[in-house]
Amino acid sequence: FYASFGVELRAPGQSAQQADGSVRVDNENRRVRFYFMDPIFGIVLQHLTIRDGFVYAGSPRDPTVRIEQDRFVVSGLGNNSMRLPFSIFQDLMYGRIPEDVFASQTKYRTDKNRLIAEREDETSRSVYEFENDRLRSMDYLQKSDSSRVRAVLSGRYMATPFPQKMELEGSRGGPAEKMVVDFRSVEMPAPC
């Protein structure tokens, strides 16, 4: 599939930064490509390729670096930046249920028409909230540095599994930063 989206990052005391993004998923070759571009000029600011357990990140100015996917995190703009494992971010972007929900240590409870799944281990704690068969929110705590991220997914982009909008808010002990991802188009299937 192919999807385009807008991204806006807001950090306390800084002006908001925006980018246009796209993701192209090639299931046959097990490859994912993200591009982040300047919204005015269309210049590529950053590109990511995920393949075989590694993230290859680069930009027109910087050489491409290879990072183990398990160690790659989505972060914000400042020192108090949110930190979210990329695998969880990727699941949220695709509107799919994260693997954590099916882990043996996950506990489930219901609250009216909501299902809540809670998972905790020695490194992190995650709480997922489902409503009407869709993931609606996720709270993530990384215990080593006390970074917290709350994701709220709203709407549904046409007849796809994608949310219309995803809002992430996170911090490491200070004022929270915010990231908003707003889907603009989705092609399923799409040539890759």
How does this structure look, described?
With 192 residues, the protein is mainly beta. 5% of the residues lie in helices and 54% in strands. The chain contains 1 helix and 15 strands. The protein has a 13-stranded antiparallel sheet, with no helix packed on it. The longest helix is centred in the middle third of the chain and has 9 residues, at 86-94. The protein is globular. The termini are close together. The model has no long low-confidence stretch (mean pLDDT 86).
List keywords for this structure.
13-stranded antiparallel beta sheet, 192 residues, mainly beta, globular, single chain
Give a short summary of the structure.
By secondary structure, the chain is mainly β. The protein has one helix and 15 strands.
Write the layout of secondary structure elements.
Layout lengths: L1 E9 L6 E10 L4 E7 L6 E8 L2 E5 L6 E4 L4 E3 L7 E3 H9 L12 E5 L2 E7 L3 E8 L2 E9 L4 E8 L10 E7 L5 E11 L5
Antiparallel strand pairs: 1-2, 1-15, 2-3, 3-4, 4-5, 5-6, 7-8, 9-10, 10-11, 11-12, 12-13, 13-14, 14-15
> How do the strands line up in the largest sheet?
6-5-4-3-2-1-15-14-13-12-11-10-9
Reported for the largest beta sheet, the result is: 13 strands, antiparallel
Topology as a string of helices (H) and strands (E): EEEEEEEEHEEEEEEE
- The number of helical runs is 1
Q: What class, by secondary structure content? A: mainly beta
What spatial form do the alpha-carbon principal axes imply? globular
Q: What share of residues is helical?
A: under 10%
Average per-residue pLDDT, rounded, comes to: 86
